[in-house]
Structure formats: structure tokens, C-alpha cells
Task: structure prediction
Amino acid sequence: MTRSGRSSPLAASRFIAADNRAPFVLASASPRRLALLRQAGLEPSVVIAPEIDETPRKSELPRLYALRIAVAKTETVATKEAASFVLAADTVVAAGRRILPKADGDEEVERCLRLLSGRRHMVLTGLALKPPGKPMRTKIVTTRVAFKVLTANEIAAYVASGEGVGKAGGYAVQGRAEAFVRSINGSYSNVVGLPLYETLSLLEGSGWK
Result:
């Protein structure tokens, strides 16, 4: 769930649409979001990784940050795909008002896990959808997650697995870290990276068939 602030070249991959639905563009570099959409039976016509700066602003709250980045991703891609439904999302792990990073290495994974050990945190996803010829629609989805108290050996083993690198909050709930979760209040798919129920509702409510 990469928040390095570094931008990558605009990349696009195209897929054959399964039917005659209106074009649907996923503005995301995340393989997990694409996998979740496919799990729900949705195949984007185009997948584009938008080139934006994802650096949080000073004192920016997690909710506002997640929504701002999702909107920026959608706007960047919608300028080139004006005839399509363009969907973007940004997922943030927050401990109180603090935005946890997308861990860029083992040390950051360890710091995140030590912070999350034995406490509750929030996973927030900002959704932004730009239908063709209509105003953008947005939504924020929040899931509350509680971790058990992690031992030093559990943290070390997880860090050694390499699974947390590149993930928001330093963990992937769909992997080994699921064993750390004491409770989840809200959408599980939101913690993976895309709240499916809310995403489908946003698309259908915007006229996508």
C-alpha cells in the first residue's frame, strides 16, 4: 500500500475490453488495485501510471492527503482520456494524525511495525472518478485495523521476508501480516488497496454500465 515523492515516467498498458462497455481507465501503478478490480469482474480498457509528486504537505491530515493525491492522479490522466471513465485511488496508513510512509527499505518497515504494534490505526483510501463530460466524483473510505503486540522475532521475520517494502505502513495485509491483525472494522479490500463496494457504487452512480 510508493510514497517516495519521486515521479516515474508515464506508463500505460492496454487490455482488450470484455464487452462493449464505455472505456474505463484505471489511473494507478498498483498491481493490487488491478487485481482487485479483476476479482470483481472489471477489466480496465487502459491502465496508466500517472506521474505526480506524492510528497505530503506540512501538517497535512491523512484524509485530506489521500483525497488530494487521488484527485491529482485522476486529473493528470483525464486530460488525455477525456472520453473515458477515469478512476484513481490513493491509500494511506495513519496512526492518529501521522501519515506512515510507503516503506522504502527494511529499516522503515521495522519502524512502522514497531509503531503499529499493539495499537489501532486507520487505513484511508481516497477515490476520485472523472466520468466523460461530467464533474469529478470523490469519496474517502476508512477502515480501522488493530494489530496485536508484536514480538521482536515476529518483526524481524517479517522484515526479512521483504514483503513490507513498498507498502504503505510497511505491511501487506493480504500476506504474512494478516497474522498480526487482531480486528478489522470496515472494508478488508480497502486495506489491500481498493474498497471494492465503494468503487463499484461510484462507477455505477456515475453512469458506467
